[in-house]
Design goal:
Blueprint (H helix, E strand, L loop, with lengths): L1 E3 L22 E5 L2 H8 L23 H7 L7 E6 L7 E4 L7 H9 L50 H19 L13 H12 L23 H11 L5 H23 L1 E2 L1 H10 L9 E2 H5 L6 H5 L2 H9 L4 H12 L1 H18 L17 H10 L4 H5 L6 H10 L3
Antiparallel strand pairs: 1-2, 2-3, 3-4, 5-6
Helix pairs in contact: 1-3, 6-7, 7-12
The structure holds flavin-adenine dinucleotide.
């Protein structure tokens, strides 16, 4: 098998000063083969997925090995990542080989994979079939519309995945707590968090197959960055009483320092002689006149490392004790400021529609100028705002105009 070492500089999940893994065990890569596929095919007629006993849709983005053989019949090899389960065990997770074929078939096929000739099973692969409630029956708080005070989170809503389940559980828990204490609900918007996209997608569009959160489902990806997740969400979490003073303090320090650093680039001028060697190095047009640092830093290929080679910049960093997180944040804010601003404006436009509320008991049947499909979908989903209505498939821009006119906007 081919060794697959971990990241040289592993990133941490937490913004707090948690220790990160210093030493890692390698993963390994191997492949299936035409022989392995032939062995697996021998079990197809005994597989509940193929002989019709199970009619459910599998997760599109992590198909079983039998699914891959079937769907991509032209391929005679599929990649397998072998992942160690821990320091004190010989158990490995065979990623890419999920299967519900009969145990004897699995074992024979796996032993034919290069590197697995002497493999022993702890337990065979398996599939589970589960049911869900169409999530269009939920409010943004994840409270069910049909039963007051009942909240649904996770796979029961048609999603698949650990993070999908965990984030919904968090939101349902927060909202159940707020409701019982007669406080305003806590809803994250689509431009504030992936959780906002996930929940809004589920309750507005529903899902026909196991739903997984992808960055591509978000329209505001420039705003929803992982480097600013703390800046976006810590204040909200603190207000709810979840984030500690320490976490909030660290976030504020990062925010203040990055802002000051960006301001520094906007205010501080350079002289052509100090900047031109850098511009030449990256094949960017040299300058004849002095200007603000922000201008050259915004150019492609000019990096924070280049900036740090200037005395004025490195002095500022030392004086203000700026750490790597602040440097990264300032660099992103300078380099992408144009795109970030543009996306913020787009999001603001959406917020204006977000503010046009539709009464809960709104009678769509009265609005004959709505298309039949729109009326039917709006009745079923009962969007809370015009913005949510506009995201329902089958509700067209002209239906939205009709609604806006009726609501006096
Ligand atoms: C083999 C397999 C591999 C997977 N691999 C991945 C992966 O690599 N990455 C990933 O992101 N996701 C993976 N998933 C999906 C992920 O595990 C699930 O989507 C997620 O765990 C669902 O969480 P949940 O809390 O909604 O449901 P569950 O984790 O199923 O929790 C539901 C809980 O309710 C309990 N329960 C049921 N009925 C009752 C009752 N009547 N009374 C009380 N309790 C009850 C159950 O015992 C269970 O503990 C995998 C799933 C499977 C099956």
């Amino acid at each position: 098998m081919i060794p697959q070492p971990g990241d040289v500089y592993p990133e941490k999940f937490s913004y707090l000063n948690t220790p990160i893994l210093k030493e890692q065990r390698d993963c390994h890569m191997t492949h299936t083969s035409a022989l392995v596929h032939d062995l697996l095919r021998e079990g197809f007629d005994r597989s509940p997925m193929f002989n019709g006993r199970i009619k459910s849709l599998g997760p599109r983005y992590c198909p079983s090995i039998e699914d891959k053989i079937n769907r991509f019949a032209e391929k005679d090899a599929h990649q397998i990542f072998v992942e160690p389960e821990g320091w004190h065990t010989v158990e490995v997770y065979v990623n890419g080989f999920s299967t519900s074929l009969p145990e004897d078939v699995q074992y024979r096929a796996l032993k034919s994979v290069k590197g697995f000739e002497n493999v022993k099973f702890f337990r065979p692969g398996y599939a589970i079939e589960y049911d869900y409630f169409p999530p269009t029956q939920l409010r943004h708080t994840l409270e069910t519309k049909l039963v007051n005070n009942l909240y649904f989170a996770g796979q029961i809503n048609g999603t698949t995945g650990y993070e999908e389940a965990a984030s919904q559980g968090l939101m349902a828990g927060i909202n159940a707590h707020l409701k019982i204490n007669e406080k305003e609900p806590f809803i994250l918007k689509r431009d504030e968090a992936y959780i906002g996209v996930l929940i809004d997608d589920l309750i507005t569009k529903g899902t026909e197959e196991p739903y997984r959160m992808f960055t591509s489902r978000a329209e505001y990806r420039t705003l929803l960055r992982q480097d600013n997740a703390d800046l976006r969400l810590t204040p909200k979490s603190f207000e709810l009483g979840l984030a500690t003073e320490e976490r909030m303090g660290r976030m504020k320090e990062k925010q203040d320092k990055s802002q000051r650093f960006v301001e520094f680039f906007k205010k501080t001028s350079f002289v052509p002689d100090e900047i031109n060697p850098i511009l030449e190095e990256v094949s960017s047009a040299v300058v004849k006149q002095s200007d603000k640092l922000f201008k050259v830093f915004s150019r492609p290929k000019v990096t924070m490392d280049h900036m740090l080679s200037l005395n004025s910049v490195s002095d500022f960093v030392k004086e203000n004790q700026l750490n790597s997180e602040v440097l990264e944040q300032a660099e992103i804010q300078v380099k992408y400021s144009g795109y970030i601003e543009k996306e913020k404006n787009n999001a603001d436009k959406l917020h204006r529609l977000e503010n046009v509320k539709i009464p809960e008991s709104f009678d769509y049947s009265k609005l004959k100028s709505l298309s039949y499909e729109a009326r039917e979908k709006l009745e079923a989903i009962r969007p809370v705002t015009i913005s949510q209505a506009s995201r329902i498939s089958g509700v067209s821009p002209s239906d939205i105009s009709v609604l806006l006119v009726f609501l006096g906007r």
